[in-house]
Amino acid sequence: MGWDFLKSSFVFVIIVIGFIILLLAPRIMTVHNLGGYYTPKTEMTYKENIQAFIHDFQTEGFGENRYGTAVLEELQAFIKRDLIIVIPAFVLSIILGTFLGVVQFQFREGPFGKIQAFFSWIFSSIPDFFFYIAVQYALIKLFYVGLPQFNLYGNDQWYSFILPMIAVMLYPMLHISKFTFTSLENEVGQDYLRTAHAKGLRTISVLKHMLWNCLGSLLNQTQFVMLYILTSLLIIEKLSSYFGAGYHLYGSIINNEDQRTLAFILPYLLLMFMTVIFTKVCRHWLVPRKSGDSR
Amino acid sequence: MKLLTFIRSNPLFFLGSAMFFFLLYIAFFGKYLPAIDTKLKEVDFLWTENKIPLAPPYEPSEQFAIGTDRLGRDLLSLLVLGAKETLIIVFAIALVRYLLAIPLAFFAHKNKFGVNVVLNWLNGFLSYIPTIILVILLATLPPIVLSKTRPFYLILIIAALEVGRVAEMIKLELNQLSTKEYITGGNSVGISNFRLLRKYYMPFLYGKLLVNFVGDLGKVMFLLGQLGFLGIFISHSFIQTDTGAFGFKNTSLSWPTLLTDAFRDLRGAIWIPFYASLAMTYVIFTFNILAQGIRKLLK
């Protein structure tokens, strides 16, 4: 466990360094006048850029944004808004996804399960941005008809996070549901199930046993779920004017604010890292061992 | 009669192919349809009933079936005329990705040139950082921004970033196949690696590759849509205006370009991002259904 943790931390550090190296490639261009021709050229070489970054970092840390506010200060406000979406979306997509998967498995032979499978397939093919825009469009039309109006955009209201959250978690939830369904199906026919049924266990208790055995493969998906949520968040925050860290991350990349970009991506990378560690801890403590396996 | 039974036993494949052929028809012959304005006339203003000039964009109406964009161009015509370019880009990215992935997977399977390590790190990197951020970082590099062949570089970048995922999938298939006896047979006869890949491995992989390839087309479309919202396109040109200033001019008709101003359009001309992303959703659906259909067909 300790060794595993060290290894993950090492990978994390390398990934952060890799990202910084990619980030620091010179991008700022100025236009030079060479005998009548205007040619754009990069201001600094790669090496100069890295040196400047290290120097700036040592003297002023993450620095200030264009309006003189310390980056870390603004980051605190923004990341809070992000977490309001990310954490519920992550937890809900895993819990609801597992639940939907179990329901679909239980009713897989009846019409209900078939209908559910159909709908979860349809919805997992819809890109989240289209889903979000379509819901907006529908709501605007409904406002005309007489639905009581509420604020669709921004982050001022207490409910502002709900719509982006649903858009962000839709696909990961269905992914988990599909995954649960498939791994439950793989368990069918195992000996322990026959024993459980023969002993007269109720269906729900049998399902609990099965789910416990599927936990290992489900936990493999947590990193994907988190990555997907964070990726979508960038787009959905831009569409909904929800001013979180994702919204500003994109802006600072485009404006070549290297320190600010790093400050804004680090929480994302940390979230990913925490997911990885969380998964490892869960696997260590919760997942039942097959006979003969060693931890 | 035979055809009917075929359709009935493979409804998904049939539906997917029908949707796909419709897409192809629109992409290649759509410009000959009567409702399509091939010149993409920019309507500067329209008179309202009260004789007030009204500036674009216009809502969906009788004149414009699904509205116009901000320049007053008919949105339906834009979508139809942009279909070909969009599809070609999507195909190109997926094709380049698979062409790169097959040899990489084979080298990784044979444990040669350290490909395994590279692929592992690439996959590890991408499982931490969203792909779109990496695409933005790479696409804004000056040599690529200024290049005349920028579209090719961008296609290559997008293809290469996710090549690890595909190569990993193919590698697992190769690993599975390599336990088969006929592979051992081929090895003991002493054939070259290239021939081994082409004649021994590949024939068993074509089906799986096709299914995954078609599925990937949908994924690429999704990624291009996401990039469109962030204002990264495959093709735009870097131009110098009269005063010597530089700027980007969008010269392409592909669908993601319609999404650039989405965050502004959502508050007014919501039909522009809606129908543009609807078209993309159609493409994603088509390829998802087709992939499922082919998988069922091959079973």
UniProtKB/TrEMBL annotation, chain A:
The keyword Cell membrane is annotated on this UniProt entry: yes
| GO CC, one annotated term | plasma membrane
> What residue intervals traverse the membrane?
9-29, 83-105, 117-138, 158-174, 225-245, 265-286
Q: How does the protein's chain sit in the membrane according to the entry?
A: Multi-pass membrane protein
- Quote the SUPFAM superfamilies the UniProt record gives: MetI-like
What's in the keyword line of the UniProt record? Cell membrane, Membrane, Transmembrane, Transmembrane helix, Transport
Q: Could you tell me the Gene Ontology terms of the biological process aspect for this record?
A: transmembrane transport
Compartments it resides in: Cell membrane
Asked if the record carries the keyword rRNA-binding, the reply is no
Q: Return the Pfam families for the record.
A: BPD_transp_1
The ABC transmembrane type-1 domain extends over 94-289
Position of the signal peptide = none
Q: What is this protein called?
A: ABC transporter permease subunit
- Which taxonomic lineage is given here? Bacteria, Bacillati, Bacillota, Bacilli, Bacillales
From TrEMBL, chain B:
Where does the record place the ABC transmembrane type-1 domain?
A: 83-291
The entry's protein name is Peptide ABC transporter permease
Organism, scientific name: Robertmurraya kyonggiensis
Tell whether 4Fe-4S is among the UniProt keywords: no
Which SUPFAM superfamilies does this chain map to? MetI-like (SSF161098)
Gene3D superfamilies xref list:
MetI-like
Q: Keyword check for Flavoprotein, yes or no.
A: no
Topology versus the membrane, per the UniProt entry? Multi-pass membrane protein
